[in-house]
From TrEMBL:
This is NOC4L protein. The chain crosses the membrane at residues 31-54, 85-107. The lineage of its organism: Eukaryota, Metazoa, Chordata, Craniata, Vertebrata. It comes from Pheucticus melanocephalus (Black-headed grosbeak). It comes from the Eukaryota. GO terms for biological process: ribosome biogenesis. The gene is Noc4l. Pfam families: CBF (PF03914). Residues 43-192 form the CCAAT-binding factor domain.
């Protein structure tokens, strides 16, 4: 048992400063699988080492995607290691052999959590979701049901379900993305509106968006050149400023 701080220090460097120099990297299987099961930031950091063992050393982890799915909670858009997590998640969901129900569960959960995400995270996750649709066309049924439920309780998707296969994501629709099309940030609304059109075959490059911060987003907006907007107005007439206002016949503003 290690203190959480030490766990993080070890896991941050394990994948590039330890595993490549071990004669038998598979000896770290137990350590990484235990760390992956702890939860929170420690689980996120354990993904790097696990990816190497799965990809290069044939590690079999039957509940890997179930655990990855459980890591998606509201804090995932705010944590320090967000870029690393979504980079690896993108790799894990890139296989065309994944079942549609699994990918649909990830898409739906990411979309639901996006309702409370900051703009800098949304500008990354919306292209991320578009890429998942490009890789897994069977999940596009979520887009072919544009009319969302009248009430959230009518959505067949079960957010609290820990097992992706039981979440009923494929029976749902992406009404969350439709809601984001009315987002207060124009770039977010524009990114969400892409799903209203037919998606191109070329995937979006999200590598430059993984590290996007609120400060960078603010600087980008501040540096935009202002555009002169012509304005028209009608002089106020009467108390309420309406045309043919009956009050204008009896009262006037000096």
């Amino acid at each position: 048992q290690l203190p959480p701080g030490l766990y993080k220090k070890v896991l941050v460097i394990l994948h590039d400063s330890v595993l490549p120099y071990m004669n038998e990297p598979t000896l770290m299987m137990d350590f990484l699988t235990v760390a992956y099961g702890i939860g929170g930031a420690i689980s996120l950091l354990a993904l790097n080492g696990l990816f190497i063992l799965i990809h290069q050393h044939n590690l079999e982890y039957p509940d890997f995607y179930k655990k990855l799915y459980s890591l998606l909670d509201p804090s995932i858009y705010h944590v320090k290691y967000r870029a690393r997590f979504f980079h690896l998640t993108d790799l894990f969901l890139s296989s065309s052999h994944l079942p549609a129900y699994l990918v649909a569960a990830f898409i739906k959960r990411l979309a639901r959590l996006a309702l409370t995400a900051p703009p800098e995270a949304l500008l990354m996750i919306l292209p991320f979701i578009c890429n998942l649709f490009r890789r897994h066309p069977a999940c596009r049924v979520l887009l072919h049901r544009p009319a969302g439920p009248a009430d959230m309780s009518e959505d067949p998707y079960v957010m609290e379900e820990k097992e992706p296969s039981e979440s009923r994501a494929l029976q749902s629709s992406l009404w969350e993305i439709q809601s984001l099309q009315n987002h207060y940030h124009p770039d977010v609304a524009k990114a969400a509106a892409v799903l209203n059109q037919s998606l191109s075959e070329m995937e979006d490059d999200i590598s430059g968006l993984l590290e996007l911060s609120a400060a960078e987003l603010f600087d980008r907006e501040v540096k935009k050149k202002a555009v002169d907007v012509p304005l028209e107005f009608e002089p106020v007439r009467g108390l309420f400023g309406k045309k043919n206002d009956i009050f204008a016949e009896h009262f006037s503003l000096d």
